[in-house]
Structure prediction request, 1515 residues.
Amino acid sequence: MHISYSNLHIFKELAMNKVMITLASIGILLTSGSALSDPAPMYKPGETASPAMAAPAMTGPIDRAKILTAPGVFGAFSTYMIRPDYYKLSAAERKGAAAEVMAVVDKHKEKVIVDAYLTRGYEAKSDYFLRVHAYDAAAAQAFLVDFRATRFGMYSDVTEALVGITKALNYISKGKSPDLNKGLSGATYTGDAPRFAFMIPVKKSADWWNLPEEERLRNMEIHTVPTLAYLVNVKRKLYHSTGLDDTDFITYFETNDLAAFNNLLLSLAMVPENKYHVRWGNPTVMGTIQPFADVVNKLSMGH
Amino acid sequence: MHISYSNLHIFKELAMNKVMITLASIGILLTSGSALSDPAPMYKPGETASPAMAAPAMTGPIDRAKILTAPGVFGAFSTYMIRPDYYKLSAAERKGAAAEVMAVVDKHKEKVIVDAYLTRGYEAKSDYFLRVHAYDAAAAQAFLVDFRATRFGMYSDVTEALVGITKALNYISKGKSPDLNKGLSGATYTGDAPRFAFMIPVKKSADWWNLPEEERLRNMEIHTVPTLAYLVNVKRKLYHSTGLDDTDFITYFETNDLAAFNNLLLSLAMVPENKYHVRWGNPTVMGTIQPFADVVNKLSMGH
Amino acid sequence: MHISYSNLHIFKELAMNKVMITLASIGILLTSGSALSDPAPMYKPGETASPAMAAPAMTGPIDRAKILTAPGVFGAFSTYMIRPDYYKLSAAERKGAAAEVMAVVDKHKEKVIVDAYLTRGYEAKSDYFLRVHAYDAAAAQAFLVDFRATRFGMYSDVTEALVGITKALNYISKGKSPDLNKGLSGATYTGDAPRFAFMIPVKKSADWWNLPEEERLRNMEIHTVPTLAYLVNVKRKLYHSTGLDDTDFITYFETNDLAAFNNLLLSLAMVPENKYHVRWGNPTVMGTIQPFADVVNKLSMGH
Amino acid sequence: MHISYSNLHIFKELAMNKVMITLASIGILLTSGSALSDPAPMYKPGETASPAMAAPAMTGPIDRAKILTAPGVFGAFSTYMIRPDYYKLSAAERKGAAAEVMAVVDKHKEKVIVDAYLTRGYEAKSDYFLRVHAYDAAAAQAFLVDFRATRFGMYSDVTEALVGITKALNYISKGKSPDLNKGLSGATYTGDAPRFAFMIPVKKSADWWNLPEEERLRNMEIHTVPTLAYLVNVKRKLYHSTGLDDTDFITYFETNDLAAFNNLLLSLAMVPENKYHVRWGNPTVMGTIQPFADVVNKLSMGH
Amino acid sequence: MHISYSNLHIFKELAMNKVMITLASIGILLTSGSALSDPAPMYKPGETASPAMAAPAMTGPIDRAKILTAPGVFGAFSTYMIRPDYYKLSAAERKGAAAEVMAVVDKHKEKVIVDAYLTRGYEAKSDYFLRVHAYDAAAAQAFLVDFRATRFGMYSDVTEALVGITKALNYISKGKSPDLNKGLSGATYTGDAPRFAFMIPVKKSADWWNLPEEERLRNMEIHTVPTLAYLVNVKRKLYHSTGLDDTDFITYFETNDLAAFNNLLLSLAMVPENKYHVRWGNPTVMGTIQPFADVVNKLSMGH
Prediction:
């Protein structure tokens, strides 16, 4: 394919920095700690962008450490409420729910990894949420369809579902923002094992996306400065979701220090980037990190 | 009918380009690939606008390739959730669901074509969605009413419904924007068979519609440039729906490369046209492309 | 009653045209064709405004042509969804539904006329909608309460309800806008019998209502010009509802040419008046025009 | 307690009229006719504000005329929908519903008065609404809790609930706006017994509440002028609810002339005060005024 | 009490650095009276912020007075509606509900304290709400999960859930605003035992959070002045929740004087800070303060 732009003189009057944005230059500070030192592979439009798409066929369980740090990985988040009639099943029927669910997790273990979180007590619109990682988005769906066919899944109503994809660091890269990049890679989480997780969707305004890339970089640098101090007690991971659902990013956090987390989010409220948010939360989902079987068991209690 | 405007001197003070907009000059870049080379028939208000309305009586199954590229075709999109009590039917009763649905599809095959998509796992407000094409909007309704009378349809709640009509390319036509028009027709999809589809409604502000046509054209040209590179890995089709439902357009995409799709949508976020969106998504519906019977069967699983 | 305004000097600084608006001067272009030639009776605040209120006692069925063109008539619109358990009634029980409904229509035929529309397939939040006209709003309620007590009504959930009142043409009257008035009365519907109807609520901003009347008139004239060409293929009727429900107007359309209707609504999007809309649709309700018994029967299908 | 503000020089730079607002000076035109001649008791912050709180212990039924005109009275508005399974009770069971409800009304008659309105046919989100007046807000709750324990109440879902308190006229008082005050007290309702009632919540923007009191007074005067003419055919009553629920005011109207009511509300749309509304309606609730037992009986029909 | 404002010279300075805001300097006027004299511990990002986290292991019931005044305490608010089928249980089954609930409260009494409020009659979306305090947010969840497993909890739908954390006074501290700080600590509640409680979420705009700290302090001082007079009849407590849920603050009030409360909230509407609210209420939840067992019993009535 050859496309000549040479006659598109009309565009010459326009602010070229808005039109000629390098499409690969999209990202944001938040990402998992270990991904921070990865060099960002540059994608070109028209190519298959994700190196993960070309990952070798899996022949055993997915490598958790690897999938959690690779770019091009899909993250499917879904929140659920148990329907009241679940508790009209006999206690015996509910007792078997966790084993049935774990069998489905096991069946898909070569294609997906699944994390579960208990939200009951913290949230009005969910009792638990799932985070599913897969190299192929269709594999995530296959697992979730099977999960919904279990008794526990069948008595669960989905109340939110978001799909995102991981990417390498963009704005705060070695090349563009070397000092802050050093700051990001120079600190690691030293707190207690996190007991709490948060899922917070982020959508930015048309004004944000129409800023020249330099201004977005600058905003992300200002956004980054106050967050450095929290690398030691709040873990973060970012998923990109523009077009995949009704948000631009899914931000995910783990911490054992909720006061620090509250302060981190306040510091993010106090930077100019916040003025470009059209969605930040809605929902903010807070849960405790628990083995999936425990989540199922705790929600299966009651006579 | 003769209407003399000669005494409407009051309008002379007004910006005539806003008032005298040629009504036929409404369109947008996105459309199916094969429609791109069709010359756009010009409609005049007061005439029956759609050549498809005058289509010869159908005597056999609808020609899929033809209806998918013709202007004046109706597209009825609807998303569905299965009600929980469906899973209280015996497995035997659910087993027959697909056959019953396919019989209805067969009954209407001279009037409509139907595409089905599995959304469970990706969406909170739907388990599947349907795209129905017909030359007559009443035929689309007749099919959907019959579908809802099947067991599977009866246990489905409609969660979104949109109706649109296809039109020939307008802004980026051979006459108005020859270079970009060449770009659009010069590239075709070369990726793997798409496994994923998206339905994204678009509504534009009063400020957009009140722009002079030249400015809208210019905006659509800027919108078009970054999308050319994605013709090879993302297919697109556009339906116009102002007045037919609460949106102006229904945009539909097919791809096998979700990272490329994410980048395409980011590039559309970065052009000034985005500032005129009052709805872009809400919902963004992501599904896997599957035979209708498979969708029914997969959603009929579970003991 | 004597009210002296003489000391209200405070108002002298204010734009009197905003304060002293003649209350009767409220209206809008859209109205049924036959109403266009009716002279507009002028109401004064403090009087019983509607001549229809003084209509002679009815001793036979309502005159359809008359009530559809008179000012001071109430229009009650309501949309409905059938609850799923309706389909758990035996087919025999559902078979009698239409007759029971028609008996209620007959019982009220001296007080109301009822139109029914099938929306299933086009709408997510309704299966059908009703338009009830009455000279007395209480009579419309009496019918609707009786209708809800039928089996079919009992299994229907109301999803939207709007009440409006018809008024004589105001802005585009013979006196104020003679040429456009001539245009409106000079063309009549010549298309095929309409198969489709639309109900679209309209609410305008405080900025609109605070414009001087001349500017609102001017806006309505600009609004009117592009609509003249569609008199031949789209019928229109307007109901005023400020204070009666959460919208200012209920606009109602009938057509057999959906492409023309789409173009008409686009032309209304392109005039400055559109900038004053705070609600235009939400919902836009599209249905097929059908005898009430047919609507009931079609929605009673299914085993 | 002695608070000296004399050294607050810092505030001298500020718009003092914003800071020094006399808290008692809050009110609005709308109020019941008979309350208009009552002198407004002045409350000071820090005192028990409502003289009604100090009302003598009731030993008989509440005096309707008195409670409807006194300041410091609580009005609890609540809208209800009947759940469908009510109609699965036998007709005999439903027959007793009205008597059971009226017994509860009688039980509480020394503490509350209750008005009922039929909204079915006019509203999508309610079948009826209640207006309960009490000198003590806890007494209103006690009645409503008992009502919900009746069969009819048990099958009713609450769809909106608002609590407000009556206050003496503030802006358009004898002292501040003598001519308009005379206008308000000089006209009384002369129409037929009202058959229709409306409940319309009103919330004003931060910009409104930050206006200097003089500007709010001036706005309320402009608001008042066009409403005077409707005193003869529309009755009005106002409840203040800032902080008690998610609105600032509950406006209540009774009329037998819906066209006049529509024109009154249009006139209120046309004054600058309308620009400060962030909620006006949502819902607008229209009902017919009926004895409570009739409302129960009409909604208990159906086989 | 004598309050001199003469030294409020702090307002004369306006340092502009938005980026370098001290993260610890976040707070707001509202807090419980007894907390006011506590010195505010200063947190630094990167440390475990809450001294309460390091509280000694509890070996007996929680000290109510202490937990209600300490910083670093979690408050979990949740509102509930009883599902209709609860009333289809036999009266005998419902009779035991309160005892079962109180047993759960007793089981957790070393980790949480629980307050209950009856909202039926005042609210459409709740029948009651709970306020749970704990030094560890996971303990609050553990209680709420157990509560939902009781019969009463099982028949309750959660309709809102918010989590916040208490902090020491920030803006109106001894150091920053000594006179107002004295005012806050110089007055205590002298009214009758409060019968009414309110829960009102507050979220502030990006513009607010991007103000220099001095301007936010100044706004909070202006906010504080009119509230001082209400310390005698309205109690207040504040929870910080940025990032923990979709609001920035949860404000909680107790009073026996609803007219005074209405005036207090009006005075807060009239200060410039109100212009920065993006959420203030939604919901405003009003309830009567009652022993938990009474709330359960009152909502278990009905045949």
Summary: The mean pLDDT of chain C is 85.
